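DATA SHEET
Item: assembly model
Revision: 1
Owner: S.N.
Input lines:
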Amino acid sequence: MDTETRKARASAWFRTLRDQIFTAFEAIEAESADIPVLPGAPAAPGRFQTREWTRTDATGEPGGGGTMGIMKGRVFEKVGVNISTVHGRFPDDFAKTIPGAEDDPSFFATGISLVAHMANPNVPAVHMNTRFLVTTKSWFGGGADLNPALPRAEDTADFHAAFKATCDAHGEDHWNRFSKWCESYFFIPHRNRPRGVGGIFYDYLECPDDAAFEANFAFTRAVGETFVRIFPKIVRRRMAEPWDAEARLALLRYRGLYAEFNLVYDRGTVFGLRTGGNTDAILMSLPPEARWD
Amino acid sequence: MDTETRKARASAWFRTLRDQIFTAFEAIEAESADIPVLPGAPAAPGRFQTREWTRTDATGEPGGGGTMGIMKGRVFEKVGVNISTVHGRFPDDFAKTIPGAEDDPSFFATGISLVAHMANPNVPAVHMNTRFLVTTKSWFGGGADLNPALPRAEDTADFHAAFKATCDAHGEDHWNRFSKWCESYFFIPHRNRPRGVGGIFYDYLECPDDAAFEANFAFTRAVGETFVRIFPKIVRRRMAEPWDAEARLALLRYRGLYAEFNLVYDRGTVFGLRTGGNTDAILMSLPPEARWD
C-alpha cells in the first residue's frame, strides 16, 4: 500500500470517529432534560458547532488544516473535538527531535484530539487523542485518560478495564507499557501528583510495512471505538447525581491543576504555542472555568 | 562595602517594602465598607496572612527561605506578596545561562514578588517584582506592569508617568530601555498581543563597585516606592465603580490570558516549577478565578 493511501485511510478514520463522538455526546445532551445543571446552562440540549481552519506552513506554502468542534451544553460544560490533517516542513531544530525527520524535515500529520470538561463535578473530565505521523518513517500515537475531580473507584476501574481489554486484543505488552506510559506522561512534578487516574498513552507505533500499518491502525481505531463506548457509559452513570458548592469548588480547583499541566508540560500544547500553531484549536483543551484560590 | 553587607541591605529593604505594601493595601481594604463587592466576599476588610517556608538547596544543604503573604479581601480578590532570601548552587546546566555563574554555580538571591488580582473589573491587576542577585557578579532586576481587563487611558498614563519620572531621576536612558523591555517581555506571541499595558522591566543592573551598587539599589528602592504610591491611587479611583456580569466575564477571560503567559512564558515560573521551587509561592501569581470559554 502506498503512503498516500495510508494517509487517506487514517485521515478518513479520524473524521469518522469525530462524527461518532458528535453523535454519542449529542445523544447524552438529549437525555439532559431532568438533570441538575449549572446556573446559566442552556435550556436546550447542546449541539456541536464546527469551524474550519487552514494552515500556512513555515515555508509559506499551504499546509492543510482542520476542523474545530465545540459544544457548550448542559452535561458537557465545554467539550472540544478537533480533527486536523496538516503537512509541511518542520523547523530545523525541531526536525532533529522527530524520528525520521533528522535529514528530511518534511512531515504529514493527521489526528483527532478531544477534551471534555463536564458541568457536574461527579462526572470525570476526559482527554483522548490519536494521530498518524509521516516523516521518512511513519507511526501511530495517542491515548485516553480520565480526569475526575472527585475520583470514583468504579469509574476508574471500568475505564481501565475497557482499555486493558482493547490493549490485550492487540498486543501482549500493550496494556503494561501504555498504562505505565500514561502514568509517567501525565505526572505533574511540581504538584507531586498525577493529573488524572490514568488510562493509556502510546507513541511511535512504527509502520515500516503493510502488516505493521494494519496492526497499528487497527489498534488506534479500537482505542477510538473503546473511548466512544466507555466514556458515555460513565457519563450516564453520574450525570444525574446532585452536587453542592463544595464539590463545584473542588472541580474548579482541579481544573486549575489540569490547566497547569497543559500549559507547562504538555508537549503538543507547548510546541504548538511556541511555533505558531492554531492557538484556538490548541487551547480548546483549557477549562471553561478554573480556580487557584 | 563587602558583599555580605550588600546582601543584608538589599534583603532588609525588600522586607521593609513588603511591610509598606501590607500597610497600604490593608488601608484600602479598610475603606471598602460601601463599595460593590463580589458575592461571597468577606464582610470584614481583608488582612494579610503570612506563611514562612524554608528551602533545601539542590546540594542538600539549607538554602534559605521566604515568607508568603496572601490577602483575600473585598477589593483585593487575591493578592500575593512574597519575599525570599535564598542561596546555594545552581544546577550545572542552568549555571551556564546565568551571568557570573559559568565557572562557579554559587548564588544568592533576595527579592520581593507581588501579583494582585482585583475583584472589580474596573480596577487593574498589577505585577511588581524586584530582586538582587549575587554570583561572581551581582545585579539588580525587577519591574512593575499594569494588567487591566478593561484598560483606562487615565490609569495607564498615570502608571507610566510615575515610573517614567522614577526612571528619569536615576538614568537618562532608563525609561526608554526599561519600558520597551517590558513591552517585549510581556508580549504573548500565541495571542499576538501584550499581556498588559506596560510599565517597566529591567535586569542585569550590574554592581561591579560601591558606586554602581548604590545607584542601582537606589533605583530599585525608588521602583518599590513608586509602586506603593501609584497603584493605591489607581485602585482608589476605580474601586467604587459599579460593574455588570459582562465586565466580570471580560475580567475572567483576561485572567485566562494572564495565566497562559505565566505558565507558558514567564521565566521565573517555568524555571521554578521545573526545578523544584516552592510551588505555592511560585503559583501565588495565578488568578483566583479564570475562564477559557
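QC remark: Chain B touches chain A at residues 72, 78, 189-191, 252, 256, 259-260, 263-264, 270, 273-274, 276-277, 279, 282-283, 286-293 (CB under 8 Å).
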